[in-house]
Write a structure and sequence with these properties.
By secondary structure, this protein is of the alpha/beta class. The protein folds into 4 domains: 2-124, Tetrapyrrole methylase, N-terminal domain (Cobalt-precorrin-4 Transmethylase, domain 1); 127-231, Methyltransferase, Cobalt-precorrin-4 Transmethylase, Domain 2 (2-Layer Sandwich), CATH 3.30.950.10; 238-328, Helix Hairpins (Orthogonal Bundle); 441-489. It contains 19 helices and 10 strands. The protein is elongated, with a radius of gyration of 34 Å. Residues 4-211 form the Tetrapyrrole methylase domain.
């Protein structure tokens, strides 16, 4: 079986090169064996040349791949080919073979399929020297991430964070933008280059937003962020919010009000907060939308905490269920189904949702059984009508709907049952809204806002006269109402 022996060249200085790595290189050189370096951009490479070590550097692969992932896979493929041709090769990488070396990860993962044995030799990681430099013990909690493939989900500000492979100012810019989703723009960050290499080492602490302005960033650059529990940082984390709600429910030190709550007592607040979100959206106030969404999230996490204490589910089960549902109901995004229009998406969604219910044994006896009974009246009427219309139970055209509205008005005028006939009229008006492609809830909300604003105008105008509405006549208020309408049109 072919073999690849992988050794580390240490963090940069000749004294940091492990003796075992050098002995393996010497032995391979003496046997006229093939030696490959991932890159010759490393301080000890000139020393190796002086000592007669002959090698092939693979830097040219960096110019051929579309991205780093492709570069590292191309290097691994090349090394497998060379191992089969030579029987045994030595592959040398900066630092330690097991730290921040994607090519090594690829080689180890794919070795069995390639019928190649991988042997990991000595190494000395720059991480050791960096942690000593910044005074951090990794047992305090350490995240070690790759700057070329950094995602917000990986970041946890409560842990010390080291981001390696910040090769260039472009990579540093990407790292900065990702971190600024979790940290303040001016969060103190340490940028280190060539740690432990005399004459090349450079360490500088600066605000996060400045790290891509450094003109000395190169292939030996690393970024370090100290751990923090500052509220301005960790209060952006979902786990912190979950912990806060858990603290409110702590049986000994929690809040008396929160401790009394159940799913049933919290039910009204879910509805109230959802309507307040809708109101903020209608008012098109981004800050208010964010604030109200936070209040709604509070209800969700609080319900999950109650359930967690009961042993039925927790917030992570809620997230898992929602994630799986979104993936399942969007096969045109996450699988092979196609949906070119919004209508196609809605049709797929309905089919998948129906199959989910069938899989659970939830077979509706009647078509309208799937419309939740707890919906507000106007919204429920709208959904009932859409369901019925989908199977052909609908008016032929808009004129028929207007006729129905007039019929219901006449019946209301002549009835001894105003509640029942008024309900019929409202139902007909919702049908009219559907034919006009108007959201009835939104239309009524708009009118409610308009009424609120006009009546406030009346109050302000009367207050300027030293009067209140109760001290005014209907004629006075009606005139001011018309003035408010006129002002809206101007």
């Amino acid at each position: 079986m072919a073999q690849i022996t992988i050794v580390g060249l240490g963090p940069g200085s000749w004294t940091g090169l492990p003796l075992g790595s050098y002995q393996i290189l010497e032995t391979q050189q003496a046997a006229a064996g093939a030696i490959f370096l991932r890159t010759e951009r490393h301080p000890v490479v000139d020393d190796l040349r002086e000592k007669g070590i002959v090698f092939v550097a693979l830097d040219s692969f960096y110019d051929e791949g579309e991205d780093f992932g492709q570069v590292y896979q191309n290097i691994a493929n090349h090394l497998f080919e060379q191992a089969h041709q030579n029987g045994h090769i030595v592959y040398a990488v900066p630092g330690h073979p097991g730290v921040a070396e994607i090519t090594v990860q690829n080689l180890r993962r794919q070795a069995s399929a390639q019928n190649v044995q991988i042997v990991i030799g000595p190494g000395h990681s720059f991480l050791d020297d960096l942690l000593v430099k910044v005074g951090v013990d990794p047992t305090d909690g350490l995240l070690f991430l790759d700057g070329t493939s950094l995602f917000p989900r990986q970041v946890n500000p409560s842990l010390h964070t080291v981001i390696a492979q910040v090769y260039s100012r472009d990579v540093a810019s990407d790292v900065k933008l990702t971190l600024m989703q979790q940290y303040p723009d001016d969060y103190p960050v340490t940028v280190a280059r060539a740690i432990g290499v005399e004459g090349l080492e450079r360490v500088e602490t600066m605000p996060l937003y400045e790290i891509d302005r450094l003109d000395w960033i190169d292939h030996m650059t690393t970024v370090y962020l100290p751990a923090t529990l500052a509220e301005a940082v960790i209060n952006r984390q979902l786990w912190q919010f979950v912990d806060i709600i858990a603290a409110l429910r702590h049986p000994e030190t929690g809040c008396p009000w929160d401790l009394k709550q159940t799913h049933q007592t919290l039910r009204p607040y879910v509805l109230e907060e959802a309507f307040e979100v809708a109101d903020a959206i209608d008012r098109d106030e981004p800050d208010d939308i964010a604030d109200e969404l936070g209040d709604l999230l509070l209800q969700i996490v609080l319900h999950a905490q109650v359930a967690s204490e009961e042993g039925t589910f927790d917030i992570y089960e809620v997230i898992r269920s929602a994630s799986e549902k979104m993936i399942r109901r969007h096969p045109h995004v996450f699988a092979t189904a196609e949906a070119e229009t919004a209508e196609d998406v809605v049709a797929n969604w309905a089919d998948i949702k129906a199959q989910e219910r069938a899989d659970k044994g939830e077979v509706d006896e009647h078509l309208l059984d799937s419309v939740p009974a707890a919906l507000p009246g106007i919204l429920m009427a709208h959904k009932l009508q859409k369901k019925a219309a989908a199977v052909g139970f609908d008016w032929d055209d808009l004129a028929d709907v207007y006729d129905k509205v007039r019929e219901e008005i006449a019946e209301l005028e002549a009835t001894d049952d105003p509640a029942g006939e008024l309900g019929d009229l409202l139902f007909a008006l919702v049908n009219l809204a559907r034919f006009l492609k108007v959201d009835p809830e939104e239309a009524l909300a708009r009118t409610n806002r308009k009424f609120r604003e006009r009546f406030a105008y009346i109050e302000d105008a009367l207050r300027a006269q030293g009067k209140t509405p109760s001290e005014s006549t209907l004629v006075e208020m009606d005139n001011l109402w018309n003035a408010a309408k006129k002002q809206e049109r101007s």
